[in-house]
Write a structure and sequence with these properties.
Two copies of one chain form a homodimer.
Chain A lengths: L1 H22 L4 H18 L21 H20 L3 E2 L5 E3 H4 L21 E3 L4 H10 L5 E10 L13 E10 L6 H17 L4 E7 H11 L6 H8 L7 H11 L4 H11 L2 E2 L1 H8 L8 H19 L6 E4 L12 E7 L15 E7 L3 H5 L8 E6 L1 H15 L10 H9 L3 E4 L2 H6 L1 E6 L5 E5 L3 H9 L7
Parallel strand pairs in A: 1-4, 6-8
Antiparallel strand pairs in A: 2-3, 4-5, 5-11, 6-9, 7-8, 9-10, 10-11, 12-13, 13-14
Helix pairs in contact in A: 1-2, 3-6, 3-14, 6-12, 7-12, 9-10, 11-12
Family (chain B): Belongs to the class-II aminoacyl-tRNA synthetase family.
Main location (chain B): cytoplasm
Catalytic activity (chain B): tRNA(His) + L-histidine + ATP = L-histidyl-tRNA(His) + AMP + diphosphate + H(+)
């Protein structure tokens, strides 16, 4: 058995080596060589009868929520839902799976991360990848042209996530979207307002909302001389600027993606800029950019947006950032992403790092992809990254937890202490004779006799918060 | 194209005929004949290129929830969750899929209804079929021997359900379970108490809870002479007694399942009995049944259970019913099922039929199937059939033509003239920051009539109107949509305080400093609070209107607390 364990270790190590080489895109011969070694080792191992037949675990990338984690989840959802309702949103729900074809062609390269259901006869199905595409399908199917709704549900991605950092294959999304043809930037500004309200209420630290516009990006690429075919791939390089330096991004553009160095430099001059409404005004004067129709439209809308955000009192939280690109194919106008400014880690905690906690944007074309006649319904929305927020709140609660020495008590009283039940109704023989119940406060240990018929009222009185303090 | 449509109709009709025959178990020849006709028709139809390439629908057996349906769902869940919490339950959640092997061998024949995920590399996965097996896996994995928890989530079954009757392939279960080694029948009695509390609170009509015990069934089959190998299949015949007559059940037992007629008759003498604790006592005296160890245990426990149920005041809702069998393999002791006594249908409604709305029982062996050392954790629990309940409540609301609000917006911020967008945005931002539920129309210059109409349509009770004159006077006009009364309020912070009571907790996030006035605004709804204000505060509250203002304000306040939420069911 010991030999077998050693052999299993070898197989594991060799397997990792092969995966590593594949990731580094090593040469085919090298990979083949290492795979051959792996197969030889596996052959030595023989059939795996030795293993326990039953593995007790949740599927990769998923987790159970314990009662403690559920308490955090409920608290976070309460804040988010009450904000969505404050802004007059309705709520909908959709099935966890959709027809496979509903999801096809909506996520670009990421489509490979979609979970498919097995073909067991009948329709081909896939688990939902986000809540936006099901929402667009819902609008088209019900011929709705107007709705403000929120939707909180789990979505599924066959990713290789870092679970310690709050990333899972099954995870919650909290989406708020406004669909309909309205005067420009009014719904967009409300989305940003909602984002700021929620992040402030959650008290997870200082944050900044980066804002950009797809049309400005496209216009900028055009005037810098990026060929149309390379817009998307250069876009995804630009998107990395929040993690790596401009030099590295430039190297990727020129080295890997074959952009001319002077084109890259022109992009660099733009995308390294960020600021407030003054930057918008400056770019509106930019001799080249202002000549591009798309960019001009985007900049004009951003200017209006900043006006509204000032009236909403949140302009100081917003940064116009030309490097914000957002991966998803379906965005057509304003895009935004909220990042935490300071890691909320304290002494002894694993730092969660800064990063995106909410994001969204305008997608005016998606519903039209579903409508039989291609009728468009303009939409703008946001999604709160609650899993990261759960992690932050959970870590904080752990740090704040105070351990109390447990005094020795009767089992029933001890149970109250452990679970935090504030009151004990004690029935004793004497009390029965007297027609009373002894009500004990767990915290103060005070005991009073309460008449049996008054007990319900008394417990209600003691456990409810005073309704009127005047 | 018209010909094609006619042909498609024929195919549909013929398809229904075939399915009908199969259901009636018609002869093989007859079915074959009709299938041949169907295939011929389909051949005439040819390949279906004519159809649109993209089908805009949800998968078979699933549905979206509209805002209206969500309102019903939230109401029903509120009742259920508050009951579970009242009984001290914690809450957990598990992934929507499990390792395939986790579900294997837990559901007997029904396993064929499990949804599998495609093998895309990595683990083999299946969607959860219920919440009980994931719960048992959770207990074993975390080595828990003690928990009282609830779990509300969707489960998945590749069934062919009648969706009109509230049955879906994706549907909610609301489970409550007590795990742990306790004195007999105490957790079991609490489960039945919970079931009764929930069904009473939901007010979906009169109900009865049938109770039986697996051990009594097994003991009864043994003394009647049913061979061990036939226990399960005879059990499932017995379970049909709530839908068909004893004669039909007997025919199935004898004809299809090969039971001797006299054995079936002996079973019939038992399973047609139901009653209260007196039936338990009668069977405890039954010369044969009382000799069977298993049956005796079951009857003893039921007697104790009835004692507890009497103390809980619900014995009159309970019927000991020897025909209750429950399909699932994992039950080991007490089992129960709640049925509605009267169909809740009224004139003009499609009757939903009577049927099970909640069920559960004791399963002492399931956790042991997961534990590496086979350690057992006794469990007892219940599951509320919420989809049926949703249907009943939805139908009732439709019949009453009751208007269900799908938002909670308290006030619409409106303008009386053009060019007041800035003022509207400033005011609504202040209201949001103070925790008021507020909306505005996304138009630069909306017409007042359109704004008022929006309130009527969506049920928003109040409109805060900004006008040029009001701006000069430093007031806001607050209009009640229902009564059309209008009142000028000032300054803006007073409007905030006026509306605040509906959601007191959010006041902590105000942007303004906490003045004495605002401090008072933290006070929850209480019509008398105006009387306590200082004269200075009163001046702030109503500009110049005298006594009328405060009368209006308190009337509005009490109305607000009624109107701010959705209507009760």
């Amino acid at each position: 058995m010991a030999d077998r364990a050693a052999l299993e270790d070898l197989v594991r190590v060799q397997g990792e080596r092969v995966r590593g080489l594949k990731q580094q895109k090593a040469s085919a011969e090298q990979i083949e060589e290492e795979v051959a070694k792996l197969l030889k080792l596996k052959a030595q191992l023989g059939p795996d009868e030795g293993k326990p037949k039953f593995v007790l675990k949740t599927p990769k990338g998923t987790r159970d929520y314990s009662p403690r984690q559920m308490a955090v989840r409920e608290k976070v959802f309460d804040v988010i839902i009450s904000c969505f309702k404050r802004h007059g949103a309705e709520v909908i729900d959709t099935p966890v799976f959709e027809l496979k074809e509903t999801l096809t062609g909506k996520y670009g390269e990421d489509s490979k991360l979609i979970y498919d259901l097995k073909d067991q006869g009948g329709e081909l199905l896939s688990l939902r990848y986000d809540l936006t595409v099901p929402f667009a399908r819902y609008l088209a199917m019900n011929k709705l042209t107007n709705i403000k709704r929120y939707h909180i549900a789990k979505v599924y991605r066959r990713d290789n996530p870092a679970m310690t950092r709050g990333r899972y294959r099954e995870f919650y999304q909290c989406d708020f979207d406004i669909a309909g043809q309205f005067d420009p930037m009014l719904p967009d500004a409300e989305c940003l307002k909602i984002m700021c309200e929620i992040l402030s209420s959650l008290q997870i630290g200082d944050f900044l909302v980066k804002v950009n516009d797809r049309r400005i990006l496209d216009g900028m690429f055009a005037i810098c001389g990026v060929p149309d075919s390379k817009f998307r791939t250069i876009c995804s390089s630009v998107d990395k600027l929040d993690k790596v330096s401009w030099e590295e991004v430039k190297n990727e553009m020129v080295g890997e993606k074959g952009l001319a160095p002077e084109v890259a430099d022109r992009i660099g001059d733009y995308v390294q800029q960020h600021g407030g409404v003054s930057l918008v005004e400056q770019l509106l004067q930019d001799p080249k950019l202002s000549q591009n129709k798309q960019a001009l439209e985007g900049l004009g809308d951003l200017k209006l947006l900043f006006e509204y955000l000032t009236l909403f009192g949140i302009a100081d939280k917003i940064s116009f950032d030309l490097s914000l690109a957002r991966g998803l194919d379906y965005y057509t106008g304003v895009i935004y992403e909220a990042v935490l400014l300071q890691p909320p880690a304290r002494a002894g905690e694993e730092p969660l790092g800064v990063g995106s906690v909410a994001a969204g944007g305008r997608y005016d074309g998606l519903v039209g992809m579903f409508d039989p006649k291609g009728r468009k319904v303009p939409c703008v929305g946001l999604s709160i990254g609650v899993e990261r927020i759960f992690s932050i709140v959970e870590q904080r609660l752990e740090a704040e937890l105070l351990y109390k020495k447990n005094p020795k008590l009767l089992n029933q009283l001890q149970y109250c202490e452990e679970t935090g039940i504030p009151l004990v109704a004690i029935i004793g023989e004497q009390e029965l004779k007297d027609g009373v119940i002894k009500l004990r406060s767990v915290a103060s240990r005070e005991e009073v006799d309460v008449r049996r018929e008054d007990l319900v009222e008394e417990i209600k009185r003691r456990t409810s918060q005073p309704l009127c303090i005047c």
